[in-house]
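For the sake of clarity, the format in which proteins appear in this thesis is described at this point. The record quoted next illustrates the convention:

___
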Amino acid sequence: MTSIGILGSGRVATGLAAQLASVGHEVTIGSRNPTATAAQWTGPAVRHSDHAGTARHAPVVINATPGNTTLQRLTALREELDGTILVDVSNAIERGADGLPGGLCYPDSSLAERLQQALPGTRVVKTFNTMLFTVMTDPGSLSTPPTAFLSGDDEDAKAAVGRLLADLGWRPEWIEDLGDITTARATEALVLLVPHLFRRHGPRPFALSVAR
């Protein structure tokens, strides 16, 4: 069992929280209004706290906050996140007129790189940002095996995240370690495919997959 903090209270955060708690992990959901989040919660037993409290007491923290404000939010938690593994599943995007991704906030870098630079005492691992949120916790639901990419500078941190992915149903052959944190530039750029997929097919579950 691992103590896991999840920053955010939207569909990504609550989906991950419910599944991780259901397989035995001790989960804390961190939100700006933990009382309201707790009142709305209908899943398995989890704790509720604010962002700082969640980051302070969990060795593994999942960032599921909106990517375009993540850097500012998490930089303010530098002390609380020091020494933790930070699993970043967000995409930092500029939205188009239709509300879908229209551009990247960091086109010559990546959110993951910016987080690692801003939080030198934190081990950042990028993953899960190339799929619809439902696939994160149910990868077997797709007709084609999906791929979860890992980017990060710390090998032990990536191995720990790989074990969490296994708890969510991800088979080892579905996980692709791309290398250091700079490789997150490639996976973050893939979000620009999303509006085209949605316009043609609607918000159906999808993931990127490497076929060999």
About this structure: The two ends are 34 Å apart (CA to CA).
